[in-house]
Amino acid sequence: MIEKAQYQLSRRAALTAAIGVAAISTPERPTFAAADQGLALVLNSASASFSVIDVASRKLIRTTPVLREPHHWALLPDQSALLVGDTSANTLFHLNPNTGEIVQRTPMSDPYQLWFGPGGRHLVVTALAVEHVDIYDGKTLQLLKRLRLPTMPSHISFAPDGNTVFVSLQSNGRLVGIDLRTLTTSWQVSVGKAPAGVFWHDHQVLVGIMGGDYVAVTDPANGREIRRVKTGRGAHNLFYAPDGQSIYVTNRVEGSVSLLNAATLDVVRTYNVPNGPDCIAFAPDGRLWVSMRWGGRVAVLDPKTGTHETIAVGRSPHGVFLTRSPTLPGAGRPAALSLSTA
Amino acid sequence: MDPFSFAADFVQQHFLVPLLFRFDLMQWQESAYGWALFSVYGLAQVALTFAICMPLERWRPIERWPDGRAVMTDVLYTIIARAGLLPLVTFVGFYHAQAWFNGLLLDAGWLPPTLESMVPGLAGQPILAFIVYAIILDFADYWRHRFSHKVGWWYALHSLHHAQRQMTFWSDDRNHILDDLISALWFGVIALLIGISPFQFPLLVLLLRFIESLSHANVRLSFGSLGERLLISPRFHRAHHGVLAAGQRSCNYGAVLPWWDVMFGTADFARGFVRTGDPSAEEAMATGSYVAQQQAGLRRMSSMLRHRRERARQA
């Protein structure tokens, strides 16, 4: 039965591959004209749609329907398509990464977080509701392995060598290390209540502890906690600043964004961003676009002044993608470690 | 931003998330938001129905009663059903059922279906897809309702809904909790197969639920010869609640669309504004408290099952 299942899933994955993932190029972002600020795509997880906003004017251009529940996105390694996971529709939308137009839909099991590993070797997809982690071949998108983890697998980060992926398990407070050479779990340890964002940084794995008020700094060899960095209640997700010298942490419950010195992990500044801040994308003008999960808005934060304006989008906005972003959040520091984001 | 989302965001931000954080349940924050939306829409449905139906009932009542104590129990049913515990249980239960069902299918190598994957023309047409889904749900509700009258022990529970002699727009949610549970399972299966979230089209859902409540209103209102064949009116549905229609030989089972009654020969457009109630139900079902009504429903169901067993033994 398992073999049959894998075969059937592989057939579907092969169909997915037919859309063209053949060329895996370097993850560097292209350069754009300074005046071209591009578009922002905000995934409205409780409105079954995504909002397309002109970054320069902050005007909503259109709202595009998907099927059920879009949460996160990943850019194909050759950056030819933006993949948007629609979880309860079990569908992957393929978008033009410059215009945000839907090009194609393909089936995929409960795609919540999705990331391509270094070099595009693997695509790892967590299914938060159905509770498994799928590991695909990054080039062919053939399903290699399904690991059942009945503990709400959520966020993902890769080791720079691409041999290990780290996944937070929200319902049992654990972090799991998965060996991508053997496709088996290497270890699974407790890291704190409702762990969320996972983030490789300087030979350590940082984990946002959403049920607490800190980021756990752990040893990638075994997941053991080395130290804690207090940020704010509901510490959630982590992102490198475009210059790689700082790390931003969203604090879901407190309604703030902490700025950490990347060298020391000291909190150097805290920005007030209410209504459950979650994902961050960086605009060419240096501003941060932050989704406000319980505000139906996206905040545009000026890190210099600490002020922000907001733009109305759909319900429970989650992933944010900027077509002209100078960096890919989650792509590592400063050279690319991973080719996608969430 | 629409006012429902604003209210749900407020409830989530200021009440639910702090509570979840306090009790180490932050992994349920997204489900909590779903429940907040569910409850906000439920309250909005109650408010809209009240704002329109109350003046209508005062304007052209079919019946006047010396006191409205029996109606007050129905108000409690409505609050519980639309904004209270029931949506929470349904929501959490459905989340787990959906995860289990999808996991089962995925492990067997199949992707769970959606209405749009079965009818590809509906993809990219969310409003049309939702209308098709609503029609399918209404069709399913017709058959659920017909079976609830046909199967003896099930009608023993459902008779709680029919026992009300002072029927008003509040009576729509007057159901035995086991009857509600069966309905939740019934619709849950359909939602698992082709479900579309009601949050995508809150105004359409609001309209559908309003029609259901209005159909129970104590108002002398008909939609005319043609209108009554398109949408269910208070006059049409009142015939279903008539004292002569209680039990297994009823008519007009539809909830929103009378099409299914016409199609399957159970429509009766001739009856006027009849008296309502179920003479076979014990008095506690009509005028008892919420708890007394629930207990009476259970008594009637167990009595029905006992008689069935005895009949089977004698046969």
Can you describe this structure?
Chain A has 342 residues and is mainly beta. Chain A has 1 helix and 28 strands. Chain A has one helix at residues 2-17; strands at 39-44, 49-54, 59-65, 70-75, 82-86, 91-95, 102-107, 113-116, 122-127, 132-137, 143-148, 153-158, 164-169, 174-179, 184-190, 195-201, 204-209, 214-218, 225-230, 235-240, 246-251, 256-261, 267-272, 277-282, 288-292, 297-301, 308-312, 317-322. In chain A, strand 6 (91-95) and strand 7 form a beta hairpin. The longest helix of chain A has 16 residues, at 2-17. Chain A is globular and about 50 Å long. The relative contact order of chain A is 0.15. With 315 residues, chain B is an all-alpha fold. Chain B is 66% helix and 0% strand. Chain B contains 14 helices and no strands. Chain B has helices at 3-22, 29-59, 69-83, 85-107, 115-118, 126-150, 152-162, 177-194, 202-214, 224-230, 234-240, 259-263, 283-287, 290-314. The longest helix of chain B is centred in the first third of the chain and has 31 residues, at 29-59. The mean pLDDT of chain B is 88. At the A-B interface, helix 1 and strand 7 of A face helix 1, helix 2 and helix 4 of B.
